[in-house]
Amino acid sequence: MKALxxxxxxxxxxxxxxxSGKVYEKGIREIIKFTxxxxxxxYPIGTYGCGPLMSIEERKKSLEIILDEVNGKVPVVxxxxxxxxxxxxxxxxxAKEAGAQGVGAICPYYSxxxxxxxxxxxxxxxxxxxxxxxxxxxxYNNPHLSQNTxxxxxxxxxxxxxxxxxxxSSFDLVNFYFFQExxxxxxxxxxxxxxxxxxxxxFDAGATGCVCGMANIYPELLAEIYEAHKDGNKEExxxxxxxxxxxxxxxxxxxxVPIMHAILRxxxxxxxxxxxxxxxISETLLxxxxxxxxxxxxx
Length: 299
What we know:
Layout: E1 8-10, H1 25-35, H2 56-70, E2 77-79, H3 85-98, E3 102-106, H4 116-130, E4 137-141, H5 143-146, H6 152-161, E5 165-168, H7 173-182, E6 190-193, H8 199-204, E7 209-211, H9 219-230, H10 234-251, H11 256-266, H12 283-295
Parallel strand pairs: 1-7, 2-3, 3-4, 4-5, 5-6
Helix pairs in contact: 1-2, 2-3, 3-4, 4-6, 6-7, 9-10
């Protein structure tokens, strides 16, 4: 897969665990079956996928299950970011061997505010390990969680070195324009947005894809806004964007990941549970969440 083939609606697919915390294979497969008819790709084992909460072997196993269930129907770009370079490279090599179509990595977390040269060296090692034209490497810009920031100037350096994509979760549309400008001479570079919250603005700004957590629970809603965008129906895009923001507020009535697992179970998907330190949500919170979704005619 070339980088620019990773487009459209891309869930950062939820991982699934038994109540004991063990990886729940059936739950992972059920989430894929539920979302696959509506989406254009997957970005697993990241924030929503609880990658940092799993051991290296659990991350590998979960990715293998996802790849088996997807079975080549849409591209899978595996998140391989960790706190260190050696483990990130190990996961990237595994993802390539397992059959993923590319990899992405957040900047090292737990090492905040690293100098730009450190970030460049870390990501260059990842590029050196696996990058090919048909196996692109993405960087995942999430300064809130990593406490490290990809700047437009660093992005340009990385593009010159071989990076082929950016997933931007900074929620900053101004910076998104600067990212586009920084890589404009690289016709095969793909810039995608990492949230459904600013779908309309980001796609107007040139985004080709959206890695959107909400696509785990309402993939049909995200598919609808993407189709409206492709059809040039700006009024419908704006209507759906407002609805999406209302749903986001509901998923933030508590910790988002366990709320999403609970919504999926309520929708009839055997999605399993989140892993500690997350806890399953209370019955009181569940009823509040479902009540607000019913008010939007989404349940």
